[in-house]
Amino acid sequence: MDNTQKPRLDLDTVRAKLAAKTGPQYWNSLEELAETPGFLELLDDEFPQQMRPMSGGLDRRQFLTLAAAGLALAGLSGCRYQEQRRAVPYVNQPEGWIPGKPLFYASAYTQQGFANGILVRSNEGRPTKIEGNPDHPASIGAVDAITQASLLTMYDPDRSTNVVNEGDLSSWDTFIQAVRASLAQQKATQGAGLRILTETVSSAVLADQIKTLLAQYPNAKWVQWEPMSRDSVRAGATLAFGQNVHTQYHFDKAARVLSLDGDFLLTMPNHLRHARDFSDRRRVRRDTKEMNRLYVLESSPSITGAMADHKLPLRAGDIEDAAFAIAKALGVDVGTNANAGGSVVPGPWIGALVKDLQANRGASLVVVGDQQSPTVHALGHAINAALGSVGTTITYTDPVEASPGDETTALRELVADMQAGRVQTLAILGGNPVYNAPADLNFAEQLTKVPLRFHLSMHEDETSALCQWHVPETHYLEAWSDTRAFDGTTSVVQPLIAPLYDNARSVHELLEAMQNKARDGYTIVHDYYLQNYPQSDFEKWFQTALHDGMVPNTALPARTVALKPGLGASLTARPAVGASDLEIIFRPDPTIWDGRFANNGWLQELPKPLTKLTWDNTAQMSLATAQRLGVTQEDLAELTYQGRKVQAPVWIVPGHPDNAVTVHLGYGRTRAGHAGTDAGFNAYALRTADQPAFGNGLTVRGPVGRYNLAITQQIIKDESVNDAKVIEAVKDRHPVESATFAAFLQNPNFLQENAGEKETTPEPASREGQNKGGQGRHEPITLYGTRDHDYPKNPNDPDDSFGAYQWGMSIDNNVCIGCNACVMGCASENNTPVIGKDEVMRGRAMHWLRIDNYYVTSQAKPISNPETLFQPLMCVHCENAPCEPVCPVAATVHSHEGLNMMVYNRCVGTKYCSNNCPYKVRHFNFYKYIAGQPSPEKTGGGYDNPSLKLVVNPEVTLRGRGVMEKCTYCVHRISLARIEAKKEGREIRDGEVITACQQACPTNAIVFGNIRDQNAEVTQLKTEPHDYGLLAELGTRPRTTHLAKFRNPNPEIEAGVETREG
Amino acid sequence: MIQRKPKTKLPVSENGGEFLEGEHTYGSINDRISSIVLNQNAQPAPWFLLFLTGFGLLQVLGLAVAWLLYKGVGIWGINIPSGWGMDIINFVWWIGIGHAGTLISAILLLARQQWRNSINRFAEAMTLFAVSCAGLYPLLHTGRPWVAYWLMPYPNILGMWPQFRSPLVWDVFAVTTYATVSALFWFIGLIPDLASLRDRARNPVARLVAGAAALGWRGSARHWQRYETAYLILAGLSAPLVLSVHSIVSFDFAVGIVPGWHTTIFPPYFVAGAVYAGFAMVLTLAIPIRAWYGLKDMITMKHIDWMAKIMLATGLVVFYGYILEVFFGWYSGDRYESYVIWNRLHGPYRWAYYALIFCNGFAPQFLWSKKVRQNLVVLWLLCQIVSVGMWLERYVIIPISLHRDFLPASWGYYTPTFWDWAMFLGTMGQFMLFMFLFIRFLPMINIFEIKDLLYRKLHAGGHGPGHHANGNGHSAPDSATVAAEHAAAPAIEPVD
Where are the alpha helices (DSSP H) in B72-119? Predict the structure, then answer.
């Protein structure tokens, strides 16, 4: 500034101004004090935010100057000091890291306190897929649908990103100060007003932290509440043995299994391991002589019941009667309850069952469902003991949970304390008790009486809304932790990515901060293991544990426990219940579980096993019950239970016990997020602390309206329930080949010869010649002779222009349990979009792989208890693909390796290929689904969302609007394997290409490989006598073939006493 | 039948009548037809009503297409398994309607059916407009219409050709060829009449436009000779197209393996259905228009009677097709085929099937009765029933076959949405708009061919079909003669 023009400083003015001001004044210069024009000008120049608004308008030069400056400065906003943290330790050597090549890290997913070992794929630092960890005992390389979909929750755009105080944004520091102040007050009473509420904890680190905190505040209490509580399992063990022991089932040793309402294949902990072990004894090959046999008594149709050789639908309460009857028949002491039960199960059924179990002493197993009463659990233990199963098919260990106890009682006490004003500080670390606590406890109401309550969770949910403080929680793939598997094996949960949101904290970090400490998550976990597992070379040991995904030698040893003497006397049968009293059964939802995944679009849109329902829950009942209540499919009924009411859409499920209604928990969320809010009805509103699993006294009033449901297998919705002709049409087509195991033993070539006890009508002549016995080659009759893409040709023939590889797949229907793991694996791998309920209702579901579900009824199997057949179906890669010749632009073509390929760029979207596809496995982008159209708010967002973009598998193209898409046989995985093989100068090995569905499958039902390789597993499977090509009579020559489904019924029961009338 | 002795005045006949009635001179014919075009101030009231309806519905079409392009085909009711719905139904329906025109023009011409002269222009125009409506659907039903040109074989840097095994490619060829030949045929037939308009128009713009379009037609013998040759060649080209287009359209289904589609009966049954629908539409339009424009002398009850008879004949063929479909379903022994029939009769869409049988099987039986054929109101209503029936036929074939095919697990249901209907109504608007613009701005009846009829009538005696070997108005007076005779003819007031 030109000094000469600067006006003089008038000291009088300064004095005058100073005199006019009161209070202390802070100033830097006399000019400032005098507020001279020169100073104001300087201020303007220095601090542009105080610049005058540009009232005079801009000329061109000014505009360009500002625009350029704006552009240049915009880049600076990205310049931020990034805190360095150890977020992703490389398990593989970092120097081996190649951009574009994904890396896999071992971690673990925890549900109900039990871990599934997983391998997480990381593409350039972002986790994109979850697969099973083959070394982990609870995973054995498989992974379930929920675990896979938990990945999407991390990228959920609705996740909370900020500390919230009474609805306003706040900061972590403010929060922790408030908490510390409150804790400081608690010091005086030794924490008498402090409560910590968590979900079931099996993390040793977390338990250690909480116990440390409790040591500082001896009067404080730690409460665990898991909506899918295993209280009655623990109570049952205590009842039987006098102590809480943990029960482990070994299906690999069981030739006969009886399940008492135990859905051990899907919703019970450790189900992946159960499924693998169970299926290993069920696999049928040409020389198989033995197959296990499964009896199921179940209250709510499950996939376990669908796999049963004999299934009896019973009300959940009646199962206790059946358990008494079975125990009595086995000679177990049932005390004064000798007359209990009996009537609910046909006598001959029990006789035959007991005979069969006894004939397999030591190799039989009785599984009791988590929801069953302690009495049934105790009876189960007694029966297993009586059958000599203990030590072989069943073992006992110490509990896996860090602090097992009766969670319902603890929660009840907590609520009582809150009501009495005894709680001053409530730390809710995870979970959503306001939503899922038993309705009769009035948790929400009492919660507001706590002066300081804070909630750590990934979403600002129902509980957050009622707490003063909400703290965003890290996802398990963002933070360090540890967990334990069903058998006790400990895994360190390692993060794959720094927390997406800076404000998010793990529960460990929060507890650390509450104790005025400041270790980060890694140090907390590392230090715990350093102290508790001292090693000579700890770092190497720790890295190995991280790499393997588990800490060595942590499985719990088997214990010997003895049944309490006089057990029978201590058992009391339930009060008598009328035969037609309506029972309500609460079950976790098979996709969104207890509601924690309500905002997970992948799971919302995953068709639930058996019902194929998406985006909703229903009141499920049998046909007879629906008729009695005067309601039918999609009627809205009002359920009243213990004075509480909800309205629920009715869904009739074949195989549901009469006089019972199943409701699935997890829906009806009010603050879940875009996808989950207001989907379905809230069954928790009916659930009480006394009857968390089932109870009598339900009344149903209906219909009070209509409610549309989105079902992917629409025929279930339309007429399967009562249109006999449709049932006839389905049966007549027998899309799934099935037989009894006995028939197979008698004649393994039954499929070719149409012999054996086929449960469907005999084949017409058109199917003759479909299978050449034992050759595994499908040779349909054709007018046109063999085609030039027949395979395999002589590899030594120089004219053989066909590739060395001819890809094919075999799906074993016999061990497919219908668990959806493959469907979710496929969706996650191939970026299939979530389209929302409306679009599903229109019949536009986009899953490339679906599990068709067929019921089979016959004289012996009425509609009240039909047989269920699963058949996974994706593009079967026909050699004579009907889709190919009808495409006008050659967008779907055949590769020389036998793949039916879809060229998205070339597709104009005539949909003719789909019309002409007899399997209807092609899916069309009617809207720009990847962007979340037509309504991103109803799908939870599309892959255009900045956050959801990260979950996309970069190996697979995102499909735009107007193109057809379908299963590719994971062609990108084939390409990866081919590149590896070429680099090493060899052929692709058998088993090297594993498709996403195959990887996820817990029962190894899906096998993929090169059918030109005679030794490949898939080729061998295709030579099995019971291999068949679906709709092969059309001449499509499918590359994916299926293995027939077998049942292994007990001949004594099969003789006709199986079914009860009505 | 047309050997009847001519009379000086033919009453409006209740029992057949003639193909040209009333007392006409060459001049009066010229006047009566061209005055509709030349006297623009004298349009009947229904014209405005229908034009405005058409115009309004065209706006609906614009909206429906714009929304479609913006959102995608998801706005329609199509799904998996029913990948095609009203888009293809309407395509086939419109194409079918378009068939009558070319049949009348080409096949009846080659068969020397003089009676076609009164209705051919009109029917040809109808064909063109119907094809223009039809053509929208295959284009817009694609998921990505902006690349629909890939269905055309054209040299491109990708080195990609269409996939010639696909019936959709055949469709492209069939429909574009048909549209081209029909347009040419129509235009060439218009040339002498355009010359007449040119000569008679007082409005300089009309004179200029008609003059340019008449391509310098002076009516010389050489012109007539070349015209006749060209017309005959085009007729020869069009005649097989009548059969081929709908055969190829039917291949879209017959080539597919979908039960209910995969059948050899489709080509003849589709062609018959097309002619059936086409004549229904010709009658739908002709019956009111001949009344509004005073053309009852030229489109006589005899025309109407004969067209009704053709409808009856083709309707019977179509009904036979339905019967055979049921028979094949049963006789095939194939579970999928037989289920298709069962599903039509008992499935969720049975209403559509029964309505179809009523519309196309039973309703046309009334046409056996001459009374019905001569009762314009009843006949017009029957034509509406036929149009609905032919639409239902495609509804039954397309979504009903698709919605339940091989695997019950993938069965579904198809329900058209608002936008499906909007686009259908919109194409109806386009059709109406074009049709009524045509009526107003071009001679809707072939002037010179009617004059040929008059010539034959006046120089009667040997009126048998064998007499006019060329089958067409080669001896019709040229425009100069017409003008000369016009002066002597009694003036005929244009119809209001």
Answer: 86-97, 99-102, 108-110
- Alpha carbon separation from A329 to A292, A312, A351, A383 (Å, rounded): 22, 18, 7, 10
This model of the complex carries an ipTM of: 0.88
Residues of B in contact with A1037 (CB under 8 A): none
Q: Is the peptide bond before A792 cis (omega within 30 degrees of 0)?
A: yes
Q: Would you give the DSSP letter of residue A255?
A: S
N residues, chain B: 496
Give just the sign of the alpha carbon dihedral A921, A927, A931, A936. Answer: negative
CA–CA distances in Å: residue A839 to residues A589, A843, A901, A924: 22, 7, 26, 12
> Measured in Å, how far apart are chain B's first and last C-alpha atoms?
34
Convert B121-142 to b/e letters by CB count within 10 Å (16 or more is b). bbbbbbbbbbbbbbbbbbebbb
- Note whether A773 and A974 are within 8 A (CB): no
* pLDDT, position A660: 93
Pairing of strands A246-249, A394-397: antiparallel
Measured in whole angstroms, how far is the alpha carbon of residue A326 from the centre of its chain?
Answer: 34
DSSP class of B494:
P
Question: Which H or E element spans position A426?
Answer: strand A425-429
CB contact (8 A) between residue A962 and residue B144: yes
pLDDT digits (tens, 9 = 90+) for A673-723: 888 888 999 999 999 998 899 999 999 998 999 999 999 987 765 554 455
Residues of B in contact with A818 (CB under 8 A): none
Question: Hey, are the CB atoms on A963 and B82 less than 8 Å from each other?
Answer: no
Residue (of A148, A104, A108, A102) closest to A1001 by Cα position: A148
Helices and strands in chain B: count of H runs, count of E runs? 18, 0
Count of positions (residues) in chain A: 1062
Contact assignment for A886 to B167 by CB distance below 8 Å: yes
Tell me the per-residue pLDDT of A757-814, one tens digit each, with 9 for 90 and over: 333 333 333 333 333 333 334 455 555 555 444 554 555 555 555 567 889 999 999 9
**Beta-bridge partner residues of A699:** A640
Q: What percent of chain A has pLDDT over 70?
A: 86
Backbone conformation region of residue A677, classed left if phi is above 0, alpha if psi is from -120 to 50, else beta: beta
Q: Distance between alpha carbon B175 and the CA centroid of its chain, in Å?
A: 14
**Candidates B80, B82, B148; nearest CB to A908:** B148
Which residue has better confidence, A217 or A45? Answer: A217
